[in-house]
């Protein structure tokens, strides 16, 4: 498992220059617009894209077929992508946390915003991975875009209705969010393992 994750990190290392340029670019935009949340959101999005890119690398190089000739199971290949996603998002969380504190945000607000951003990134990874394992990166991207478009439209439509969450619900939101992530994680991993188990290499 460790070797699979190191392999992904090594492949992603080739994109270091591009990632660094993007990070600096969006960092400047965030500073000039006085909106530290923008940087955290973009950084989290970049980490999610890196997870997608790691699967694209594997598909292009036919890595899965080669890996299965070694003492590596299909479940190892699947779980390594989830672990990679968590690690990358934790890096984004740490960078976002330091950046917000450096720009003068208070600790409580910084922690709350960073946790929400982290959970959002985790939910995105949990949502997209089963589709990528099922349809591949090329087809999967279109399906993912469609899903997020529909979700965005639903949230926008709900907002226009004037719907408001009760204070009682908002007070429970942190705990409920964590429970949703855990449930989504169990469903996502189970679905990915089932898909990959029957996938032809």
TrEMBL record:
Keywords: Membrane, Transmembrane, Transmembrane helix. Pfam families: ABC2_membrane_5. It comes from the Bacteria. The keyword Transmembrane applies. The chain crosses the membrane at residues 16-32, 38-57, 78-98, 110-133, 140-159, 171-196. This is ABC-2 transporter permease. It comes from Thermoclostridium stercorarium subsp. leptospartum DSM 9219.
